[in-house]
């Protein structure tokens, strides 16, 4: 039986002594207003380990076999995982700018450090943990159409040639479609910064491949892309719940759409009766938690850890809960920042190579 290994580095050998990995490549094609290619930038990228969560949710079929369906004859029925939500639909970008909106380019220490040997700027290393609350370091705030939520606009396959590896075929090579390409285009009028001069243009420093629900036009929200996928109860704010000082939080009797939160979801705990934009996180180091257990129709939610503040004091009493639908498949800091301009459009292609 073969197995899929998602590695954080090149050159890892699997237990059966086969060289396997799931790697990728980012390509930026910069074109002028006449469509001529000015520059082509390609950077290798490893699909990070936490991509396994999306693959685990996306791998199942949309239905399961119910032997009691059709009056006991059996039949296929829909299960309760929204598989489509876990499909990659967006490519989100971050940029180096300060609180005043001034571009920082490669001098931004959140992204780049000086190489001790050459003195040049090199990207920081992204770990496999929950840095930046599992999100982007400094996402470009959204306000369509100038600062849009970039949806994947094209998906296609590329082939590579590999040994046939079977005695039923000649010992040569054959083409297989094992490279999936996800593409979007940053138009000349998009992502051009907070102001009107060339000094205001965004310097793209990070890019992430996102799985989430489909959204149409979002208008001028001027918010973080992740906030668009934080959903609460029917009241427009988070689900009202109580934190017990243990790993179990309890949805209030007034909460309506309690089955919107399912086992396997990620939630964000905030101050009760606050909205997403307030971002009142009760002094938590990381307000995001994984739902380990929740029964259909139940109000008890078992989390992966006890909610505590930054002094490690358990949080008790009323809280608000938002379901987090923003799922990062992979996250990359660019080797060299890319300056956006109103003179150019940039085609972004994310290749995932399934070896």
Brief description of this entry?
The chain has 355 residues and is mainly β.
Task: Provide the gyration radius in Å.
Answer: 23 Å
Number of strands: 19
Spatial gap, N to C terminus: 16 Å
Structural class: mainly beta
Strand order of the largest sheet: 12-13-16-15-14-17
Largest sheet: 6 strands, antiparallel, barrel
Strand content: 35-45%
Integer count of domains: 2
Any low-confidence stretches, pLDDT <50, length ≥5? 1-21
Mean pLDDT: 84
Number of helices: 1
* H-E string: EEHEEEEEEEEEEEEEEEEE
Oligomer: single chain
Estimate the helix proportion, in percent: under 10%
Q: Overall 3D geometry? A: globular
How would you sum up this structure, described in words?
- This protein has 1 helix and 19 strands.
- With 355 residues, it is an all-beta fold.
- It has 2 domains: 28-38 and 48-59 and 80-212 and 326-355, no CATH class; 229-325, no CATH class.
- The strands form 5 sheets. It has a 6-stranded antiparallel beta barrel. Strands 2-1-19-9-8 form a 5-stranded antiparallel beta sheet, with no helix packed on it.
- A hairpin with a 3-residue loop joins strand 12 and strand 13.
- The radius of gyration is 23 Å and the shape is globular.
- The two termini are 16 Å apart.
- The model is unreliable at 1-21 (pLDDT under 50).
List the helices and strands and how they pair.
Blueprint: E1 22-31, E2 37-46, H1 51-58, E3 63-66, E4 75-78, E5 88-95, E6 112-114, E7 121-123, E8 154-163, E9 173-186, E10 203-211, E11 230-231, E12 239-244, E13 248-251, E14 266-270, E15 288-293, E16 300-303, E17 316-324, E18 327-339, E19 345-354
Antiparallel strand pairs: 1-2, 1-19, 3-4, 5-10, 6-7, 8-9, 9-19, 10-18, 11-17, 12-13, 12-17, 13-16, 14-15, 14-17, 15-16
